[in-house]
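Bug #77: duplicate submission created two jobs. Keeping one. Sequence:
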Amino acid sequence: MSDSESDDERTRAHVFVSGTVQGVHYRANTRDTAQEMGVDGWVKNLDDGRVEAIFEGPEEAVEGMIEWCHEGSPAAAVEDVAVEYEELQGEDGFKIRH
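Kept job's structure:
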């Protein structure tokens, strides 16, 4: 984090995406998009068929990622995106978790 970017400009969103979001490169596309937007965090598949993600970064970029989740990868069919905002935890980089 640069000196000019204070914590109050950063936000953390905990996101659960449901629909056809596994086996359609959703995680890889999420990672690539997050890296392009300068968002830290992670994404993983859940056993119930949903995808879970954490986005940390500038509020505008995090909101952009949430909007992106409604479309997701080209082959995905997103039904719902649930978002909870949480305290920052200092994520560094964006990873796919297994």
